[in-house]
Amino acid sequence: MTAGVAALPAVFKPFRVIGHSTLAALRMVGSVGVFALRGLISVFTLPWFPQQFLRQLVAIGFFSLPVVGLTAIFTGAALGLNIYTGGGRFNAEQVMPQIVALGITRELGPVLAALMLAGRVSAAIAAEIGAMRATEQIDAMRTLSTDPFRYLVAPRLLAATLVLPLLTLVADIIGVAGGWLVAVRILDFNSTVYIRNTANFLQLWDVGSGLIKAAVFGFIVALMGCYHGYSANGGARGVGRATTHAVVSSAILIFASDYFLTTLFTRA
Amino acid sequence: MTDIAKLEWRSVRKRFDGGAPVLDGLDLSVAAGRSLVIIGGSGQGKSVTIKVAMGLMQADAGQVLVDGQNINALGGKARRELFSRIGVLFQGAALFDSLSVWENVAFRLINADGVSRKDAKERAIEALGRVRLGAGVADSYPSSLSGGMQKRVGLARAVVTNPEILFFDEPTTGLDPITSAAINELIVDQVRGLGCTAVSITHDLASARTIGDQIAMLHDGKIVWTGSPAELDLTDNPYVRQFVDGRSLGPMTSAV
User: Fold this and answer.
1) Do A145 and B84 lie within an 8 Å CB cutoff?
2) Residue among B141, B145, B208 at smallest CA distance from B173
3) Which of A106, A177, A225, B9 could pair with B28 as two cysteines, CB 3.0-4.6 Å apart?
4) Is residue B63 part of a domain?
5) Rounded Cα–Cα distance for residues B41 and B253 (Å)
């Protein structure tokens, strides 16, 4: 069988590559799915490790505040300027507050906060768990009668899922404030009118749908970090590869799930 | 001393990704209260041999018996119960970087046995004393300790719950001869003090002679010789002779 495959004419080689890649991709989807399921079961069943959960809340949430805040304020400001310029072509500059608020809360707040978390947290999780794998700490944990899934994976999944909506709420407020700052300081908008227009236009669902997205993105970020760290092999090089894969796969899954969630929410 | 096997490998086979078998029908046993040392060259399956016995790897075929019970057939709860009866000193100590020394030693007590942190700390400090480390290191972090001290902390973590079986994975690798001798003495003290069964893997013959009262030579996934440390120098087994004499020529070809 193997000899037959090896003897295939060169013209068939691309098909073999495609076949191998497809099988590898399917295998990975399956193993990520099983990993996610095990992680979810660990989140919802005893024993829990509350101290680990609190530690992750601080590491993932609190220490991500500066980067999320800075990203949000500059994005809000740049978005405001672009909408003002674009709106000016239709003599519709006055819609700037509403569009900034909508764009930040429904889309940019959750997506940018998640991407920041992917870069900062998913990479850190993959590196930490990958290094633990390489130095036999995960094996040691098992021999110490402690399930690494419950001790390492479950607290990170839960913390990231809960904390990203909070970070997104902060990003929403700061992002809208960035737009307001540009509008009032540079574009001569009236501050009170800007705030009133924003508040009157925004609906609860605009913010709520963004927070639901953020919870999904948080789960993805932690899942990819844990999965790639946990399956790391090959020493320092393997840990480096796991870190890269965690960030890249988090980002891709964030964008893909954002599209599907947006489609779902706009139909609802 | 009794001859009842505490731990037994019966026709154990293991291979990875369809490659050559790492363990190829391994048969070996160690009686309760004895100290078995498995020696052999690099890549001969020593680590896999103890990992299947620790329940960290599943054998493809054969059985690993602890007190006559096949550990491959154990479910989650029974497997955790098995883990509670063993202690392991890993090659690089495998200490948790984010935890202090005493939290490392008390890890099982706090996270699996439900012991309060105060009581767990007392027991951890007592275990550190058993490996001749003072209470002063208890609040340090592993990264601030030397390799020898990390091994001692790993040993304290392995013995803190008074296990029935102790596993030592290359206990002296990377240590200077004086520190190696100190670690070997501590291992002998702990094994005798606890009256437990010990299984070690090493290619350090000085260590094997000190800590073992039964030595087995592993080659190509099979046991090719067993005997006492004294018999190690007397046997004319070609594998043992080549290994003990440190010759590149012989029945074993070097992987280098």
Assistant:
1) yes
2) B208
3) B9
4) no
5) 10
Looking at the partner chain, which of A49, A137, A143 has a beta carbon nearest the beta carbon of B54? A143
Where b means 16+ CB within 10 Å and e means fewer, B61-78 reads ebbbbbeeeebbeeeeee
Distance (Å, rounded) from C-alpha A21 to C-alpha A58?
Answer: 39
- Which residues constitute the domain of residue B181? 33-47+76-245
Q: Do A146 and B107 touch (CB under 8 A)?
A: yes
If pLDDT is split at 50, 70 and 90, which confidence band does B82 have? confident
Kindly determine whether residue A140 and residue B90, on different chains, have CB atoms separated by under 8 Å.
Answer: yes
The more confidently predicted of residues A251 and B251 is A251
Phi-psi group of B174: left, alpha or beta (phi > 0 → left; psi -120 to 50 → alpha; rest → beta): left
d(Cα A87, Cα A258) in Å, to the nearest integer?
26
Helix (H, G, I), strand (E, B) or coil at A144: coil
Q: For residue B16, tell me if it sits in a domain.
A: no
Chain A residues within an 8 Å CB radius of B111: 49, 144-146, 151
Contacts of A145 in chain B (CB under 8 A): 80, 83-84, 108, 111-113
pLDDT value at residue B78:
81
Q: In this structure, what token pair is assigned to residue A151? A: 């001790």
Paired with B227 in beta bridges are: B215
Residue B159 has pLDDT above 60, yes or no: yes
ipTM value of the model?
0.90
Residue B65 within a domain? no
CB A124 within 8 A of CB A22: no
Looking at the structure of chain B, the number of domains it has is 1
Residue B22: partners with Cβ closer than 8 Å, 6 or more residues away: B14, B15, B16, B45, B48, B221
| Contact residues, chain B, for A143 at CB < 8 Å | 54, 56, 83, 86-88
Q: How far apart are CA B160 and CA B110, in angstroms?
A: 12
> Which chain A positions have a beta carbon within 8 Å of B96's beta carbon?
132, 137, 140-141
What is the CATH classification number for the domain harbouring B137?
A: 3.40.50.300
What is the tens place of the pLDDT at every residue in B87-125? 999 999 999 999 999 999 999 999 999 999 999 999 999
* DSSP code of residue B145: S
Of residues A56, A79, A75, A99, the one with CA closest to residue A171:
A75
As a whole number of angstroms, the distance between CA B139 and CA B117 comes to 13
Q: Are B43 and B255 in contact (CB under 8 A)?
A: yes
Residues comprising chain B, all counted: 256
**Mean pLDDT per 10-residue run, chain A (268 residues)?**
61 89 92 95 90 94 95 96 92 91 96 95 96 95 93 96 97 96 94 93 94 97 97 89 95 97 88
- Using a CB–CB cutoff of 8 Å, tell me whether B91 touches chain A: yes
Structure tokens at B14: 């293991």
Is the minimum CB–CB distance between A200 and chain B shorter than 8 Å? no
